[in-house]
Records
---
Amino acid sequence: MFNPFNIALIILGTLVFWAILIFNGFVRLKNRAREAWSDIEVQLKRRFDLIPNLLETVKGYAAHESGVFERVTEARTAAITVGKSGGIKQAAEAENILSGALKTLFAVSENYPELKANANFLELQRELSDTENKIQASRRFYNTTVRDLNTKAESFPSSVIAGIFKFKQMEFFDIDDQPAAKDPVKVAF
């Protein structure tokens, strides 16, 4: 009953079953990371769509602030372009530049009481704030999934399966390399 062939067959079956479980875990984490990245892209698109409306509303009150409008427009264009063709690190950098430009725009709006009381501006500001919160939540979900995937890819014995099936580590969506993104917005008139 327990001859060496049966024992070898049981061990081999156990190893194959273990490899399948590990492989499926990698596939699940990779798909979760893709889903999380897609969630980020959806929220970024929503923000990209809100920005022109916000700029038009502010322009009506603060026409002489054209430099701020240009920086926001350029940052938005760069973020859209990088989002379509760049990697995660480049997308994170572009998004952080855009966030800084938007902070400057809102700081400028503080100098215009009529603008701050405008219902359209207030609604756009609320929607943009809501979108920023959703982007942050999506980033956290993405980074958590990437962390889990990277940990599994580095941990033994699952690292063996990762190497065999070429599961690669993914990049985090963060601002570690952009110290300017961590600084408060400075507005000078």
---
Amino acid sequence: MRTTKKQRDLLIGTVGNAKVYQRSEIIFSQGNAADSIFYVIEGMIRLSVISKNGKEGIVGLLGEGDFFGEGSIAGQALRVETATAMTYSQLLRIGRAAMTLALHQKQRVCDLFISCLVARNIRIEEDLIDLLFNSSEKRLARVLLLLCPLVSHGMPKTAIHNVSQGILAEMVGTTRSRVNVFMNRFRSSGFINYGKDGIQVHSSLRSVLLTEG
């Protein structure tokens, strides 16, 4: 969910200070004390979990305007996932007590928080429907479009950085080799391009979502 500068300034001025995280820097780890909530001012954050046998699974990629770690204000004592900065990121870290107080006393903060969580819940429901009913190729197209929210008017916007085909495969629920086949197909069709700054996604990729099968 993209937010306005006014909304971001409201949060920063009300409940905390911004902090910068470099690429690959861990924000918090699975099992850490859940004592704060985070708001993404800019950048991309990966949420992942590790099973008892050491297998890692990606449970979400978040961007500008997203909250995460909200379990800390709902009675969660320990983090159930690890949050890692995938790109240079600027985050607002809000202590549990400060966020709870703001939600009770600041109506605009409460409204923003609720709208962000509702938007994220809708996205999760759409992800589940996508996983249940759409092909791997369509799911990949949707993931790329979600990761590149600035696509408009047929113009490529480089907005996908440091997302490997392995990560895409985990998000789509398929193998890396199949993702590679689909990405090559998208590129040959002119839906995407690879540039020095990342993957450029064209709005024409939406046509994949409209095809039968």
---
Amino acid sequence: MKKIGVFDSGIGGMKIASLLWETIPEADIYYYADQAFAPYGNLTSEKIYQRCEVIVRQLIDQGVDLIVIACNTATSVAIKKLRENFKIKFVGVEPDLNFFHRNNIPGESKIGVLTTPVTIKMEKFNDLRLQKDPNNSFIYTPMPNLASLVEGLFYLDKKESQTQIQKIKNELIKNVPKNLDYLILGCTHYGLIDQLISDTLNVQTVCPSSAIVKQSNRLLGESPKDLFVRRGSFFYYSSKDQDRFKKMDLKWKDRFKNEKLMS
């Protein structure tokens, strides 16, 4: 039985974990939410790498075969050094700037990219940007508060969540350029509300979750399955609670469906 480790500063990577859970039914998923240090976008590069190293060691202690760094900021800061220091396979997350080349999107399309403030400054991201957008035709927007607002959304009751959703909408309307045709989501937290973003801004969002799961399947030698009998388990850990990995019920998935975020 395969074991897959997934980590993020909070719940942002849950969309990726959910897809892994659905496509590799025999795998155990170990999800590490580093909520005591969230959001990573507000930390120094040194602190982010330190946290990644701590988490990787804990996931390796669980016997995982693969680790998905389900955080754009952590990927930009740490994945190169992690690959140098650990022998395990890693899959990182980066904004899907190549989406438009793969799908022959018309050149006149107006394209935006949402990132955290740290990601947009990182060498890895800017190397990708130079490679995939050499003419600097995309519109890049760092969002200092959005990941934190999304993180908080999933711990509120229905009435409180409506207020939080309105705050998210206000943040998007205030900061994101108008009349975009496509919006690349450069933080896994943003992927949890991709439908909300799309509806608020009237834009088609581009989320890398499916591509990350496809790469994970490839590295593990797995083929996605549509019909299956569940054999693996889902384990969750939060550094904020300082608890051991806890087995989660299947109901956890319902909290991360975009339909619940529609106002």
---
Amino acid sequence: MGFVVGAAATVGVTAMQERGVSGAAEDVAIRAEINHLWQQRPHEEYMRLTLQVHEGRVLVAGALPDATARAEAIQLAWKASGVREVINEVQVVPSVEVPRWVRDQRTVLEIDSRLTFTREIDSINYSVEVVNGVVFLLGIARDRDELDRVLAVIRDTPHVRRIANHVMLREDPRRTRPARA
């Protein structure tokens, strides 16, 4: 019974998103295909990456030890069917500092919480990743005012050094652009 309730809740939440159920399903398939491609490579490198997919737009963030590894991760992301765009926000960093990584994860939780409890923001339409204090924001805003509210919330969050905004407005014509063949 718990599985049925959980599945129904997931479908209900997904239906509320701007991309709808079918769009969310396509994004899950893209994410799974990219993860499969990445798993064919050295595991320790791809554990340093984060992946968000929204309407076929793929945001790859994280830190890899060299430019060659970064280029390979991006090339593999482009191979997944249904990808419309790959946003490369991977930093080249020889090693990851555990305290910084922990702070980044706390910052993600703080931003997600603030977005959830801020009026006039549909937080369900946004994905947030933080790497070395840089916030990577992906999603769909209802309008410019909502996006401005989201950016203000993030700017007011401790430990945020910079925001890389990859949000599209609901009416943006790029949302209907076909996937790369």
